Amino acid sequence: MITKAGENITILHGKASKTVQTKKLALLGFGNAGKAFAKLLMEKHEQIEEKYGYNVVVTAIATGTRGNLAVLASAEDAATAAAAGRVNSTDSAVPTSAAGIDLAAAIEDIETLGKFSVRLPLTDLTSMQIAEQADYDVLVEMTPLNIFTGEPAITHIETAFARGRDVITANKGPIAWKFAKLRDMAAQNGCRFFYETTVMDGTPVFNFVEKTLQMAEVTEVSGILNSTTNYILEEMAAGKEYDEIIRKGQEIGFIEADPAMDIEGYDAAAKITALLNVLMDAEITPDKVERKGIEDITLADIEAARSKGCVIKLICKGSRGADGSIKASVMPQEIPLTDSVNSTTSVESVTTDLMKKVSIVEHEPEIEQTAYGIFGDLLRVLSE
What is the Cα gyration radius of the chain? Predict the structure, then answer.
């Protein structure tokens, strides 16, 4: 038997009882990564409850153009909001945050209709208003990257911290532009702040250093961090025309409609900045990175590198100079074929004073790996 009291659920099995707390999430962004994360939440719901003692529900979802959803703290609040037209429910029982949003229905609507339907608790709250007003414990920031400012994701996160809420971000913009400020704000407000998915999807590049290289000082970070350019260069080396590569990549959803952010090195600059800010306390921003993309690389360049036993890759690098300053770069470079990675595989190398150079590789990630990075951060929220 299950009884509800406030935000706790008591599960009775004969004489034994177990109290399960409810953890409420607000998802800002519901693209491919958001949907994959929602599917993972549904798949692992019972295991989370059993291992961590939490009933995880989603109480708000914001999208760019497909509608927003929100359920409120109580039936009375929800009914009042529905009557005022701020949320919608076609059911006799207005949904509340105790039950959360029907994720299966939300995913089905997006995949079949391209937007949320009236069977879900539609709201006219914007993503910022959801951050300000919605009933949630953890804000999951998955809005599209703004490489030039990190907004509005930064303000979303600041708003959550001001309310004393934990934050998970898959958006690298806030880590690249305002990491130190956000880290300090989280600490001041007693909030947890996790961001593993911002670089190399679900690969634990930040946890790797934090948990296993304790007291080792990071002196350099380098890697091949942009999957799109890696793929393009490999396809060019196979003799395919540039325009054909872009068209095919866009058809299968691997390359963005506007691939300039990847091809011109902006995405890679944000990633190396995020790594340096977290791992080396650099406090730099993407506009301070010396940046050159692959837009001018030709087949002749690739063949010339091949004749020397090398390949061309977009290399990210950051290190601390003798004066203590940190300099970062993103540049196409020739590297030995034996040091390379194939297809969409990424690699990050960390050099420290005690362990020297250590590398971690992510082989050909799919969207499920991105979802797992967010999911892994959620498990940290539930357990730490």
Answer: 23
Residue 35 has pLDDT above 90, yes or no: yes
Catalytic residue list: 271
pLDDT in tens, 142-154: 999 999 999 999 9
**DSSP-assigned beta bridge partners for residue 20:** 9
Cα distance from N-terminal residue to C-terminal residue, the chain: 29
HEC string of the chain equals CEEEECCEEEEEECCEEEEEEEEEEEEECCCHHHHHHHHHHHHCHHHHHHHHCEEEEEEEEECCCCCEEECECCHHHHHHHHHHCCECCCCCCCCECCCCCCHHHHHHHHHHCCCCCCCCCEECCCHHHHHHHCCCCEEEECCCCCCCCCCCHHHHHHHHHHCCCEEEECCHHHHHHHHHHHHHHHHHCCCCEECHHHCCCCCCHHHHHHHHCCCCCEEEEEEECCHHHHHHHHHHHCCCCHHHHHHHHHHCCCCCCCCHHHHCCHHHHHHHHHHHHHHHCCCCCHHHCEECCCCCCCHHHHHHHHHCCEEEEEEEEEEECCCCCEEEEEEEEEEEHHHCCCCCCEEEEEEECCCEEEEEEECCCCHHHHHHHHHHHHHHHHHC
Give the CA angle between residues 322, 325, 327 to the nearest 5°: 105
Enumerate domains of the chain plus CATH numbers: 2-202+368-383 (3.40.50.720), 207-364 (3.30.360.10)
Confidence of residue 81 (pLDDT cuts 50, 70, 90): low
